[in-house]
Structures are given as C-alpha cells and as structure tokens.
Write a structure and sequence with these properties.
By secondary structure, the protein is mainly beta. About 10% of the residues lie in helices and about 65% in strands. A 5-stranded mixed beta barrel has the order 1-3-4-6-5. The longest helix is centred in the middle third of the chain and has 10 residues.
C-alpha cells in the first residue's frame, strides 16, 4: 500500500481566543478557528471571499499555542487535512479540520514574528 501526501499550509487570523482542553488521558489539545481572505476581480469589482478553518494542535504545540495566540493573531499553519460527513436533520454536511504540525506566529498587534513550536 502506498502512502499519499496530505499537507496543507494556510495563513489566517484567529476568530476567537484559542481553547485549551485536556483529554481523559491527560493530553493537551488546543482548538481555534482562523479566517482566510481571498481576493479576486469580478466585473471590475474586487470580491473578498472569506473561508473559515478549524484547527487542532496537540501536546506541546497545543500548550504553546494557548499561551501565545489570541483573537486576531495572524498565523501560518501547516498540517494535515481531514474531513468526515455528518448527517443532520434534512441535510448532510462535511466537517473539515486541520491538525496542526507547525504553527508560525506571524503577528499580534505590536508583536514580531516567532514560531510557536
């Protein structure tokens, strides 16, 4: 069986304060959402297309992320992308998440660039 590559790199701003929790086994997980803006032209108008991505960081990266990041922080996240289908009342949707392997802290208001890991 051949392994396939699953790598995503995305830049965005945190939409809220990161949430740090511990699993029953004691492992740290930090969850947050980032927004990513894409601009393009349509009929001579600039269109701002915003996408939102759920991020989960585990272990030491989770701890550092919770300590370092805040709402509005600009980050560059690299990791793996996963999705699962969720059946709801009268509809089915895909839940897409990114599991972070690295998080580069690009800016917080009046701060310098530094990696979280």
């Amino acid at each position: 069986m051949n392994a396939q590559t699953n790598i995503i790199v995305i830049e965005g701003r945190l939409t809220s304060k990161p949430l740090l929790k511990r699993t029953k086994s004691g492992k740290s997980v930090c969850r947050f959402t980032i927004s990513n803006n894409r601009y393009y032209f349509q009929n001579k108008n600039i269109i701002d297309d915003v996408s939102f991505f759920k991020i989960a960081a585990w272990g030491a990266l989770a701890e550092r992320s919770a300590e370092t990041l805040s709402k509005g922080s600009l980050v560059l996240v690299s990791g793996t992308l996963s999705s699962k289908s969720i059946a709801g009342s009268n509809e089915q949707r895909d839940d897409v998440k990114i599991t972070a392997a690295n998080i580069k802290f690009l800016s917080r208001r009046n701060a310098t660039s530094q990696p979280c890991n």
